[in-house]
Write a structure and sequence with these properties.
Number of strands: 16
Helix content: 40-55%
Radius of gyration: 24 Å
Shape: globular
Strand content: 15-25%
Distance between the termini: 37 Å
Number of helices: 20
Structural class: alpha/beta
Strand order of the largest sheet: 2-1-3-5-6-4
Largest sheet: 6 strands, mixed
Length: 432
């Protein structure tokens, strides 16, 4: 559907879509196509273009992202109670009479995610699990407003932590060590600056009553705050469920009908399968590269080998770098390249055998990936072309690394004797 804006003015080519200033990569089109609110397209607008577009475009339903959520609320003739209270909207619907209705489905989406999290991890409805408990919301922007509203509806005591004010990052523990839940609504840790976190593991460890850590960021799939919580055994979840759930409630408004709520979890799982990397670790010579290549062909994915990427970037391979610059210099390069590759999505990644020698690499592998250990008997491992295996011996390397391989992996497979067999075993084990 073409817009009826003046010649040369921005126009949405479809009845449904997403507007914002800088959209970049978004899964909104994919989600809405599965929900039935399609065709759906994206349109980037400059601030001076927004009012005219909202008033004159022939769209039927819009999702609105930063920085135009307040503009969306003002443009509507009718607003939900949430929008009236918060002053921001992320969903606009043009009704049959031509009037525009505004809703904030970010609140609904986070409420859905929060309630599922509490039922899964805390064995209670959100209102029962969080009533009268302190919940910290990191950040004070638009996403924070939606999260605050959803938490307030449970009866929680909501405390907003920002750079300044009474509750800030400098006095987080001094004032709020008794928090039961922490929610990150800042962009800290969002791709490509991942896996950073606004609340490090050392601070989470000093919150004895902390029941969970949530993040509205959905890329990477395990954000920095979630990884920190995971290491402490604290339940955590990043924001993909919120993204899908807010789209679900927006799509119901767009289509004017009830949808099957089971679609939220189905679409969430589909996106996880499409975007999660499969990361292969294990001893040098375990078959990570040959298995990875076969696995990538089976899945129709791109295969990347960390050692090959190091050689491409540095102009020489691991053996020469270690020989000429030393192992520490090589490990620095390996960490950088591993971080670059594993921040991407939908890859099969084969890591060097020594990736586990640096603890900081664990988060790099896990931020967007299912980590699979390929376990081959030591007697079958070759040291040919492998400087660390030759220098230390396979048995010594195994003593140093085997515990980390097992601790870092989500899945461990014993070698079948062929790359084809190992690849099929991994597919079965990870559920792809």
């Amino acid at each position: 559907m073409a817009g009826n804006s003046p010649a040369g003015a921005p126009s949405l080519a479809t009845p449904f879509g997403l507007i914002g200033r800088k959209l970049g990569h978004s899964w909104s089109r994919q989600i809405h196509e599965q929900l039935g609110s399609a065709p759906y397209s994206h349109l980037e607008l400059e601030p001076g273009e927004v009012a005219g577009f909202l008033a004159e475009g022939r769209w039927r339903g819009l999702n609105v992202t930063i920085p135009y959520k307040a503009d969306a609320a003002r443009a509507a003739e009718a607003r939900s109670e949430r929008v009236e209270r918060l002053g921001v909207a992320n969903t606009l619907v043009r009704r049959a009479d031509g009037s525009v209705f505004a809703e904030n489905t970010d609140v609904l989406g986070f409420s859905w995610m929060l309630d599922r999290f509490c039922r899964r991890e805390l064995a209670a409805e959100a209102a029962d699990a969080l009533a009268e408990k302190k919940c910290l919301v990191l950040g004070s922007g638009g996403a924070s407003q939606a999260v605050q509203a959803a938490l307030s509806e449970t009866g929680a005591r909501v405390v907003v932590v920002s750079r300044s004010g009474a509750d800030n990052y400098a006095n987080l523990l001094e004032r709020n060590a008794d928090a039961a839940l922490i929610v990150n609504t800042t962009p800290v840790g969002m791709y490509p600056a991942c896996p950073a976190t606004p609340a490090p593991e050392s601070e989470l460890a000093r919150m004895p009553g902390l029941l969970g850590a949530l993040d509205v960021v959905y890329n990477p799939c395990r954000t920095g705050i979630c990884l920190a919580a995971e290491r402490l055994g604290i339940p955590s979840e990043s924001g993909l469920a919120m993204l899908v759930a807010q789209a679900f409630f927006a799509s119901e408004l767009f289509q004017g009908r009830d949808l099957d709520e089971a679609q939220i979890a189905q679409i969430e799982a589909d996106i996880h399968r499409q975007t999660q990397n499969i990361v292969l670790i294990g001893m040098p010579g375990a078959g990570k590269t040959s298995t990875g290549k076969r696995l990538a062909r089976m899945l129709g994915r791109t295969f990347v080998d960390v050692d090959d990427e190091i050689a491409r970037q540095e102009g020489t391979g691991a053996a020469r770098i270690i020989e000429e610059q030393g192992e520490d210099a090589f490990r620095e390069i390996e960490t950088r390249v591993t971080g670059e590759l594993c921040a991407r999505s939908g890859l099969v990644v084969a890591c060097g055998g020594g990736v586990v020698t640096r603890p900081e690499n664990r988060d790099l592998l896990r931020q967007n990936g299912r980590v699979v250990m390929i376990d081959r008997p030591l007697g079958e491992l070759s040291s040919s072309g492998r400087p660390m295996s030759r220098a230390k011996g396979v048995e010594q390397l195994a003593r140093e690394r085997m515990g980390a391989y097992r601790a870092w992996s989500d899945v461990r497979i014993e070698c079948t004797g062929s790359a084809e067999g190992d690849a099929r075993k991994i597919l079965s084990s990870v559920g792809f």
